[in-house]
Design goal:
Largest sheet: 7 strands, mixed
Number of domains: 1
Structural class: alpha+beta
CATH architecture: 3-Layer(aba) Sandwich
Order of helices and strands: EEEHEEEHEHEE
CATH topology: Aminopeptidase
CATH class: Alpha Beta
Strand order of the largest sheet: 1-4-5-6-7-9-8
Length: about 190
């Protein structure tokens, strides 16, 4: 297994990584209060039925990866190769105005999970952020992707906020909202 920076030749293979998300649980979000007295409460709950989401690599992440790999933008695109195949990906973009690295995507092929590959990639981004004097590494997950939230928490990220209206005004009803995570480097 080798973790390295991606090259332009690797870009076409990134979509082949099986990023399927499976979970029987989610983070239920309750909203209370109003205005500046609003409060949110997260609670782990079982899903009505097991979620199996193919979690395909999106066009926005592919665009960011291409920008970074070709030098048009600053960041890191790391891949892990095993026996000639790309089995993991991390795309992190520098946000100098915020003094952070933002992780747009991290995924490990379904058959290669639980081997520490994603953890090693996260720690490489954290080390690079420290070297640049940045204050944090940020990431986002959805409340219905509990495995991603558990992974970030295990890697030292703290839950820092919630966005209930990112995709639709009905995200809370649909049991899906965006969670913001930060790994502070101070």
């Amino acid at each position: 297994m080798e973790i390295r920076s991606a090259t332009a030749r690797d870009l076409d293979s990134l979509a082949d990584i099986d990023g399927t998300v499976e979970s029987a649980r989610y983070l239920h979000l309750e909203q209370g209060g109003e205005g500046l007295a609003a409060i949110w409460r997260l609670e782990e709950r079982p899903l009505r039925e097991k979620m199996i989401d193919p979690n395909r690599l999106g066009d926005e992440v592919m665009f960011v990866a291409k920008q970074i790999v070709t030098g048009a933008d600053e960041g890191m695109v790391l891949i892990a190769e095993h026996e000639g195949a790309i089995v993991a990906l991390l795309v992190a973009q520098q946000r100098p105005d915020r003094q952070t690295f933002h992780i747009h995507d991290i995924r490990t092929d379904y058959d290669q999970r639980r081997e520490g590959i994603a953890t090693a990639m996260i720690y490489q981004v954290i080390a690079a952020a420290r070297d640049l004097g940045f204050r944090a590494v940020s990431a986002e997950t959805a409340t219905n992707n509990l495995p991603a939230g558990q992974f970030l928490s295990k890697c030292g990220f703290d839950l820092a906020g919630v966005d209930t209206k990112r995709h639709t005004n009905h995200d809370v009803v649909k049991e899906s909202a965006t969670l913001f995570w930060y790994a502070g480097l101070d």
